[in-house]
Amino acid sequence: MSKIWLLLVEPEPLAGSLNMAVDEHLFHALGGGPATVLRFYRWVRPTASLGRGQKAEQVVNREFCSRNGIDIVRRLTGGKLVLHHREITYSVASNDIGVFTDTLAGSYRLISRALVLGLKKMGLDADLAGQAPPSYARGTMPCFTLPARDEVEIGGLKIIGSAQKRAGGAFLQHGSIPVSHDPALLRAVSLYPEEGDLRMTSLSEVLGREVGYDWAVERMTAGFAEFFGAELRPLTLADADRDAVRALEGRKYASAAWTFEGREDGPAV
Predict the structure, then answer these.
(1) In CA terms, which of 49, 78, 83, 263 is 20 to 30 Å from 160?
(2) Pairing of strands 157-167, 170-178
(3) pLDDT of amino acid 133
(4) Is residue 186 part of a domain?
(5) In this structure, is residue 269 part of a structural domain?
(6) Is residue 268 assigned to a domain?
(7) Domain range for residue 161?
(8) Which of 76, 117, 143, 163 is catalytic?
(9) Does the annotation mark 65 as catalytic?
(10) 165/182 Cα distance (integer angstroms)
């Protein structure tokens, strides 16, 4: 018998603060019984997202972002800085340990394998990466500098970067799937030096053509459904959910205290 999952595909790009609020709301709204929500979305403008524990002054060029119309948000999840721009983002919120195990490493690897299957449905041959060097874990370089353990790569180049937050048996994982990439912009946003190596690629680069959002989401969704044996049913957020998301966005993700200091209080940006 198929597992029933909920699927939310955002039809239009959203602001970074709203995207982060929706993901957190879905995470906290899982309830008591086993539940899983898969979401796909885009960003209305280039946005740098910081990992939960990162120090903003060490990883992001706030002056450059302000001058060039680039938003900055802080994620609920860990990991390193990501520049969200011309990409598809996925998120999985679940408390079903019967499917995902009760460990970060176990659930992370399973989701990566589903992502690999989604890429296969696009005609791409992807793999899970091995262990990254210790300097990557300790350093302040951006997420897409190189693949970390069990992230998704093609030909040794990272094509999907992901991060996870856990609370007991529940977790939220979201990740960036670049449709195209701009290494110069990433360096400028992230303070990464010109001489540093960026081992990343994108869907358009490896496929040799432009890639549409709907086309890619359809194949990634099929990969998740097939890998996990899940039936995906469309999710529409109720008015109460949207009100809660907007309140969370204003209280937290639009807050300078959260974005630049990691505190859940303070005035809006």
Answers:
(1) 263
(2) antiparallel
(3) 60
(4) yes
(5) no
(6) no
(7) 3-261
(8) 143
(9) no
(10) 28
The 10s digit of each residue's pLDDT in 186-238 is 999 998 876 667 889 999 999 999 999 999 999 999 999 999 999 999 999 99
Res. 141: pLDDT tops 70 = no
Integer CA distances (angstroms), 141 to 5, 135, 151, 240, in order: 35, 9, 16, 39
Q: Residue 118 phi/psi, 5° resolution?
A: -60, -40
What 3-state DSSP class applies to 210? coil
pLDDT at residue 192 in the model: 80
Total domains in the chain come to: 1
Beta bridge partners of residue 171, listed in sequence order? 94, 166
User: Residue 157 carries which DSSP code?
Assistant: E
Cα–Cα distance list, 33 to 23, 29, 38, 231, 260 (Å): 19, 11, 16, 17, 35
Q: Which of 26-35, 136-145, 233-242, 253-262 has the lowest mean pLDDT?
A: 136-145
Q: What is the pLDDT of residues 95-140, one digit of tens each?
A: 999 999 999 999 999 999 999 999 999 999 999 987 766 655 556 6
Name 31's Cβ contacts closer than 8 Å, sequence gap at least 6. Answer: 95
Task: Please tell me the distance from the alpha carbon of residue 206 to that of residue 38, in angstroms, as a whole number.
Answer: 25
Helix (H) or strand (E) holding 243: helix 239-248
Tell me if 109 is assigned to some domain.
yes
* pLDDT of res. 268: 41
- CATH number of the domain to which 156 belongs: 3.30.930.10
